[in-house]
Design a protein that fits this description.
The structure holds two protein chains of two kinds.
Chain A (H helix, E strand, L loop, with lengths): L1 H29 L3 E5 L2 E6 L4 E9 L6 E9 L1 E3 L4 E3 L13 E3 L3 E4 L4 E9 L7 E12 L5 E16 L7 E7 L3 E2 L3 E9 L5 E2 L1 E8 L4 E7 L2 E2 L4 E8 L6 E11 L2 E12 L2 H29 L1
Parallel strand pairs in A: 2-11, 13-21
Antiparallel strand pairs in A: 1-3, 3-9, 4-8, 4-10, 5-6, 7-9, 10-11, 12-14, 14-19, 15-18, 16-17, 16-20, 20-21
Chain B lengths: L1 H29 L4 H15 L3 H8 L1 H14 L1 H6 L15 E5 L3 E2 L10 E13 L5 E7 L6 E3 L2 E5 L8 E2 L4 E5 L14 E5 L4 E2 L9 E5 L4 E14 L9 E10 L1
Parallel strand pairs in B: 6-8
Antiparallel strand pairs in B: 1-3, 3-9, 3-12, 4-11, 4-13, 5-6, 7-10, 8-12
Classes of the chains: A alpha+beta, B alpha+beta.
Chain lengths: 298, 254
């Protein structure tokens, strides 16, 4: 009896240690780092000599406390896809000097959020137009072996310095190939020909031939001066076969432009062959039968 | 405002229905049917609407009006009565957020070298979430301008491959790859420890001044993952040591 009791105690102790050990291992694996910021962008107008006070939230949704630092970089975009670029462009105004922060680093405990107040002071005499910067929150993981990863998440700040700026833009192109494979894709390009950025409102709907709306796309992309922005409109997980109407409108700079309606045939290759090939086959068959009858009459 | 719009909508619907039902009822009228039901309809309409319109219609289009009124009494008017209630508008602004998580703070790629060269491959998974409807862009770059793995005075050079034209790893180099991106090929890549150097292609980490985009999306993302594979290849000429370098992942909303 004592033997059984002793064995039971040993087994229970072992199981407990295993459970604790297992839990420990699990926690270590789950201890991933990560950070969240809000908002993702800010668009403000400031007069020369004026000041903007605002804030960015840094949130710790990970499973570890972490130290983070705050800093600001220039912001510009490259190409029609607006690939972000965070380095200074030679000759451009160094906007980062306009920013000051109440704190530039802190420790954030799990589940907490930190408000990071900042001030943007536009110098007197600054020319009217658009200026951009990105405020980053960055964490650095500890380690000295292998690849040490840093994470940074940014908030893009669009600043319009008021004054005599030129506002001009246009819809540069609206491209919807008439025959596509799923997903249906349309590409809209908006050009900014002025000296200040503007926010556009793109609304595109995909509907069946009876007018039933199948997909609606609504976005408010910023268009940066002297840049062309390509906006891909993709009907993810949409229909893989059928005829659809694609239409919409773009609003920008207090005007609304209708996008011409386009008819799109969505089909993958086998369905295209079936759809186009079948009528051709029938026509060929009818011609064959017709000729055969004519030959029989002769 | 909403209730006014609703009332206008219901009134329009009522007029359209009346027109249609008058047309249908004219056919019925010729057959002298549904007279009693029609009178019940006009009674209900007048009771709920309190107008004399139907009386006029009764004189002009007796049976059609009655049928129309009956149907409207049953279908439309209870709704119209409901539209008289007041409503409250609830406004809620949802802020935009973006978050970035990684599975590893440090990716360990230890190698036990051989004469011909051995290769270790390990991964890091980056998870991005954003409610920004334009999506996000995720970039990778070395944290500074030095792209080598460093251990004191010794270093392991970055692969000479690029994201567009990656190459199989040469000995004593390191690099990264993302399956299906650029010229990397579909993969799937598997982790390995000090195995023979394979044909799988890697690119060198770009300097911080020229980051590479490893994902760009066009809509909101919820726990969208990207796996980055790191490979280190070394032979026995590489001095022993603890080599490291820092890589920065950058996520911004589009």
């Amino acid at each position: 009896m004592k033997h059984i009791f002793r064995n039971s105690v040993v087994t229970a102790t072992f199981a407990l240690l295993l459970a604790i050990g297992g839990f420990g291992v699990s926690s270590a694996h789950a201890a991933s780092g990560g950070l969240t910021v809000s908002p993702t962008s800010l668009d403000k107008t400031i007069a020369p000599g004026g000041t903007l006070n605002s804030e960015m939230l840094v949130i710790n949704q990970s499973e570890l406390d972490y130290n983070y630092k705050i800093y600001v970089t220039p912001y510009s975009v490259d190409g029609e896809e607006y690939k972000p670029y965070f380095n200074a462009i030679p000759g451009a105004t160094d906007v980062t000097k306009w920013f000051s922060f109440a704190k530039t680093q802190n420790t954030l405990k799990v589940g907490n959020q930190d408000s990071v107040p900042f001030t943007v002071k536009v110098p007197q005499g600054t020319g009217a137009g658009s200026y951009y910067a990105t405020i980053f929150a960055e964490t650095e993981d500890k380690g000295n072996n292998g690849v040490i990863t840093r994470k940074r998440v940014g908030m893009v700040v669009y600043i319009r310095v008021s004054g005599d700026a030129k506002e001009s833009g246009k819809v540069a192109s609206w491209d919807v190939p008439w025959m596509q494979e799923s997903p249906l894709t349309a590409t809209l390009k908006i050009a900014n020909e002025g000296s200040v950025h503007f926010q556009s409102k793109v609304n595109v709907t995909v509907s069946d031939l009876f007018g039933g709306v199948k997909f609606n796309y609504e976005r408010d992309p910023q268009i940066i001066p002297q840049k062309l922005r390509s906006i891909p409109i993709v009907w993810e997980n949409g229909s893989s076969f059928g005829l659809f109407k694609v239409e919409g409108e773009v609003s920008y700079l207090n005007k609304t432009e209708k996008l011409p309606m386009k008819i799109v045939f969505i089909a993958n290759m086998p369905m295209r062959i079936a759809t186009i090939g079948l009528p051709l086959l029938i026509i060929a068959g009818l011609i064959f039968l017709g000729r055969k009858r004519v030959a029989e009459k002769k | 405002m909403l209730s006014i719009a609703k009332s206008i909508f219901l009134f329009t619907m009522q007029e359209v229905m009346l027109f249609y039902l008058r047309f249908c009822a004219n056919i019925i009228a010729k057959r002298k049917q549904f007279t009693i039901l029609s009178y019940i309809g006009i009674y209900l309409y007048n009771k709920q609407n309190g107008s004399n319109n139907m009386k006029l219609m009764h004189r002009k289009y007796s049976l059609p009006s009655m049928v129309a009124a009956m149907v409207l009494s049953i279908i439309v008017l209870p709704t119209a009565a409901g539209a008289a209630t007041t409503s409250t508008t609830i406004n809620s602004a949802i802020s935009s957020v973006i978050s970035l998580f990684t599975s590893n703070g440090t990716v360990t790629v230890n190698v036990t070298p051989t004469g011909a060269g051995a290769q270790t491959i390990a991964s890091d998974t980056i998870t991005v979430s954003t409610n920004d409807t334009l999506g996000y862009t995720l970039q990778i770059a070395d944290t500074d301008a030095t792209t080598t793995l460093v251990s004191g005075a010794n270093n392991i050079a970055a692969s000479s491959g690029t994201q567009a034209s990656p190459i199989a790893q040469a000995v004593n180099t390191w690099g990264y790859r993302v399956d299906g991106l650029g010229g990397f090929g579909a993969g799937p890549t598997s982790g390995q420890a000090s195995a023979a150097i394979g044909a799988i292609k890697f690119a060198g980490l770009p300097a911080n001044s020229s980051p590479n985009t490893i994902k760009a999306t066009a809509t909101t993302a919820s726990n969208d993952t990207t796996t980055v594979w790191y490979g280190v290849a070394a032979n026995t000429t590489q001095p022993t040591g603890t080599y490291s370098d820092s890589v920065t992942y950058t996520a911004t909303a589009n």
